[in-house]
């Protein structure tokens, strides 16, 4: 699919990987619908996309809320007249060991920590995919959906919630690729390793150094490298149901 004049929704589009993908796709002439929680950051991201050469609009929406997702998708379709793609990028971390004993004290991962990550990183992806696919079929638009999974989908210590959600996203990428191919909608995913964004900046410096030392390429990935991969998925019409691993050679 050529990206020029195509309407692409990016969740979590106001910072980190979402914003990097938005600016990259804007430079290819795409029309971006940026979905996120902060009006100020959304405005800045919209301005950056316009400066990069694409049209962009902001949509305040919590992707874990069914009603808000349905309204957002309806509004994007009204504003742009078409939807050709979605990047399911919004995500959160609530890390912690499932059971931990420190200095003789036992603590556990709370249900709230578990549920918050499942709600955004898995249910949010389901809701956005369902609503966008339904709208694309209704409008007769073809295109592609790109899910952002993670290297953690293989199972990462301290991330029972996140690993489960990202493994679920990887599995459902294959499910949706099979279900939606008949409507001209491809679905694929990217599983990033460690990429330089606000999310990884929140990690402890010692943990970051230790992690970087284990990467064969000895550095974190750059957001533009993820944006390049998302662009490949949109542009290559034979790519569907598969997961691109972009992790500098690191395997959990
Ligand atoms: N940075 C990495 O190293 C890395 C590695 C693997 C996977 N990922 C995945 O890539 C995606 C983007 O990560 P990032 O590093 O750019 O994170 P980030 O925290 O910098 O940005 C995430 C964005 O999602 C938005 N968001 C969170 N919850 C939302 C909700 N309920 N509704 C709407 N928007 C919401 C946030 O406001 C934020 O703007 C995430 O899915 C993350 O799990 C990141």
TrEMBL record:
Signal peptide: none annotated. Keywords: Oxidoreductase. Pfam families: adh_short. Residues 6-193 form the Ketoreductase domain. GO terms for biological process: fatty acid elongation. Its EC number is 1.3.1.58. One of its GO terms (molecular function) is oxidoreductase activity, acting on the CH-OH group of donors, NAD or NADP as acceptor. It catalyses: (2R,3S)-2,3-dihydroxy-2,3-dihydro-p-cumate + NAD(+) = 2,3-dihydroxy-p-cumate + NADH + H(+). Pathway: Aromatic compound metabolism; p-cumate degradation; acetaldehyde and pyruvate from p-cumate: step 2/7. PANTHER family: BLL7886 PROTEIN, SHORT-CHAIN DEHYDROGENASES/REDUCTASES FAMILY MEMBER. NCBIfam families: PRK08217.1 (NF006072). Belongs to the short-chain dehydrogenases/reductases (SDR) family. This is 2,3-dihydroxy-2,3-dihydro-p-cumate dehydrogenase.
């Amino acid at each position: 699919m050529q990206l020029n004049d195509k309407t692409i929704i990016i969740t979590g589009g106001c910072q980190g990987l979402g914003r990097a993908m938005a600016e990259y796709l804007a430079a290819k002439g795409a029309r971006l619908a940026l979905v996120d929680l902060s009006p100020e950051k959304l405005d800045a991201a919209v301005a950056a996309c316009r400066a990069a050469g694409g049209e962009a609009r902001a949509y305040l929406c919590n992707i874990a809320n069914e009603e808000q997702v349905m309204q957002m998708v309806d509004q994007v379709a009204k504003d742009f007249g078409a939807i050709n793609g979605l990047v399911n990028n919004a995500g959160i971390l609530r890390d912690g060991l499932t059971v931990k004993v420190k200095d003789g004290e036992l603590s556990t991962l709370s249900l709230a920590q578990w549920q918050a990550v499942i709600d955004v990183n898995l249910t949010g992806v389901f809701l956005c995919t369902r609503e966008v696919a339904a709208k694309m079929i209704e409008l007769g638009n073809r295109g592609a959906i790109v899910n952002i999974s993670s290297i953690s989908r293989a199972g990462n210590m301290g991330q029972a919630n996140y690993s489960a959600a990202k493994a679920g996203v990887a599995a459902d990428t294959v499910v949706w690729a099979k279900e939606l191919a008949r409507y001209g909608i491809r679905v694929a995913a990217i599983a990033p390793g460690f990429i330089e964004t606000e999310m990884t900046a929140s990690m402890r410096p010692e943990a970051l150094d230790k992690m970087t030392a284990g990467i064969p390429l000895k550095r974190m990935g750059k957001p533009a490298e993820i944006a390049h991969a998302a662009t490949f998925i949109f542009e290559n019409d034979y790519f569907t149901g598969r997961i691109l691993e972009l992790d500098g050679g690191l395997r959990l």
